[in-house]
Design brief:
By secondary structure, the protein is mainly alpha-helical. It is built from seven helices and four strands. A hairpin with a 2-residue loop joins β3 and β4.
């Protein structure tokens, strides 16, 4: 796809349209026009991570046990999937671009944090996911509507 729908931010390179249950991603040549992604020069590896993020939205959508998950619930899952599947060299480079601390809990994962710095939100969400006691159980709590409900 050479252009995303008008409803999508011009800074986006992909999206998941919930109403249509469709993932849309710019073709690689269009994505490269962004020059950088997460502060790193764009390459095939970053493109694959973009695709994994959008596909994670689709998979999560079909696994939520609640009808209206919060934006931060959806994005937490998509970013954790993206970073977990990212090539380790790229992941290290990206994380070095965002010297921030992991979220301490749900109370820090506000919609406004995501809206003002979506990539920083993603890094902090991934760091939170890696903390002992989070991981798979926390993802399941999100899908079940027991975490990140607003």
């Amino acid at each position: 796809m050479t252009r995303l729908p008008a409803v999508v931010s011009p800074s986006a390179a992909g999206c998941y349209l919930e109403s249509e249950r469709r993932v849309l991603v710019l073709v690689y040549s269009e994505f490269r026009k962004f020059k950088t992604w997460f502060g790193i020069p764009i390459g095939r590896s970053s493109y694959r991570s973009l695709v994994s993020h959008e596909v994670a939205h689709l998979v999560a959508h079909h696994n939520f046990k609640i009808s209206e998950p919060s934006i931060q619930a959806k994005e937490y899952i998509a970013y954790v999937s993206q970073f977990s599947t990212m090539e380790s060299v790229l992941r290290k480079k990206v994380l070095s671009q965002f010297p921030c601390e992991a979220f301490e809990g749900d109370w820090q994962m506000a919609t406004t944090i995501y809206m003002f710095d979506c990539m920083g939100f993603g890094v902090r969400a991934y760091q939170h996911f890696l903390k002992l006691g989070n991981g798979r159980d926390y993802l399941q709590a999100i899908l079940n509507g027991k975490a990140l409900t607003e």
